[in-house]
Design goal:
Elements lengths: L3 E2 L10 H9 L11 H14 L3 E5 L2 H12 L5 E5 L3 H4 L4 H4 L4 E5 L10 H5 L10 E7 L12 H13 L3 E5 L3 H8 L3 H5 L4 E5 L10 E5 L1 H13 L8 H13 L4 H16 L4 E2 L9 E6 L6 H10 L2 E2 L1 E2 L4 E5 L6 H23 L1
Parallel strand pairs: 1-11, 3-4, 3-5, 5-6, 6-7
Antiparallel strand pairs: 2-8, 7-8, 9-10, 10-13, 12-13
């Protein structure tokens, strides 16, 4: 039985062109800045995001942690949306390693309104930590892949800088946001002091993320990367895949979005499942399960038994993510499988 893996877009396999690029990559010692493939990737990433320089890192989590380390000092306060990936899924690294205190605010689908900034900040007081950084996320993972447009982004960053805050974007899926909004990614990145994005999600590379910012800032970030053990030496074998990801895989993200919409609309018609279609803006589909399924983990296990992998993200929610390694026929198979399971559940509930 062939497995259909919709747990995340991190499960993608490198394409044949990436595998060949790995084989023939021109490499050197990146800690000495001598890896041509890494240098090419960092330059390309910075150009596409409209920044001066880039830094190739092992993962998005590492990139976000390096950004916080570079922007802050121990004891500072970092403003984070309550459902942000940095707060929720990065093992408390900003507290354990950067020594900063998260101050959470409730966003609307992960986004903060400009007027919220003043309300979030506490007045200067010897008892309070100094607020120094605002971190945002686009697309927003836990909100279901929703996007924050360029105008809203600009307004929030203007307010943040008015209050003396640096700004960092967890843009793990920024290219999904850009494709959905039909704008260049640099428009979404422009107002932020730093941006991290992933190569290993929808862009299909096997490993890696890139952090971008000013030349001086990236120079500082490079030292933090070294301290964290992220100097990867002949990393060009990985960076070569990242170059292909940026040059050839961005445009195809619209296909992932189309399949996510098809999946969402199909599942929304199944008895016992509801989907907020307004939130299906990119490649993430969050579904709510009703009583006949008992809970999200029950549906997840039932699908696993049918060779379909998904993630239960809560007691009554399940997440499915489209990517380059699933096609329309497989999406239709998933919809039909859930329909069949729903009928079986309904019959059992009436016994």
């Amino acid at each position: 039985m062939a497995i259909i893996d919709l747990r995340s877009d991190t499960v993608t396999k490198p394409c044949d062109e990436m595998r060949e690029a790995m084989r023939w990559a021109d490499v050197g010692d990146d800690v000495y800045r001598e890896d041509p493939s890494v240098n090419r990737l960092e330059t390309l990433a910075a150009e596409m995001l409209g920044k001066e320089a880039g830094l190739f890192v092992a993962s998005g989590t590492m990139g976000n942690l390096i950004a916080v380390l570079t922007h802050t000092k121990p004891g500072d306060e970092v403003l984070l949306e309550a459902d942000s990936h940095i707060y929720y899924y990065e093992v408390g690294g900003i507290a354990a390693i950067a020594g900063v205190m998260p101050r959470l605010f409730s966003g609307q689908e992960g986004a903060v309104k400009p007027e919220q900034i003043a309300d979030i900040l506490r007045p200067p007081n010897i008892h309070f930590p100094v607020s120094s950084l605002l971190c945002m996320e686009n697309t927003h993972n836990r909100a279901g892949g929703v996007v924050m447009d360029a105008s809203s982004t600009q307004e929030v960053c203007i307010q943040a800088k008015k209050w003396g805050l640096k700004t960092h974007l967890d843009g793990a899926r920024i290219f999904n946001a850009a494709v959905a909004l039909k704008v260049p990614a640099r428009m979404l990145a422009e107002p932020y002091d730093s941006v991290m994005f992933c190569l290993s999600k929808g862009l299909g590379a096997p490993v890696g993320s890139v952090l971008v910012g000013t030349n001086d800032w990236i120079g500082q970030a490079r030292r933090w990367r070294k301290m964290l053990g992220g100097g990867m030496r002949q990393a060009g074998v990985l960076a070569a895949c990242g170059v292909i990801a940026l040059e050839k895989m961005v445009g195809r993200l619209q296909e992932d979005h189309r399949l996510a919409r098809r999946l969402a609309e199909g599942l929304n018609k199944v008895r016992g499942i509801s989907v907020n279609l307004e939130k299906v803006q990119t490649n993430i589909v969050k579904i709510n399960v009703l009583d006949q399924w008992k809970n999200g983990p029950t549906l997840m296990q039932a699908l696993k038994n049918e060779g379909i992998l998904v993630n239960a993200t809560g007691e009554t929610t399940v997440r499915l993510v489209t990517h380059k390694d699933v096609n329309e026929a497989q999406i239709d198979h998933v919809i039909n499988t859930v329909k069949g399971l729903s009928l079986v559940n309904l019959c059992h509930s009436q016994d």
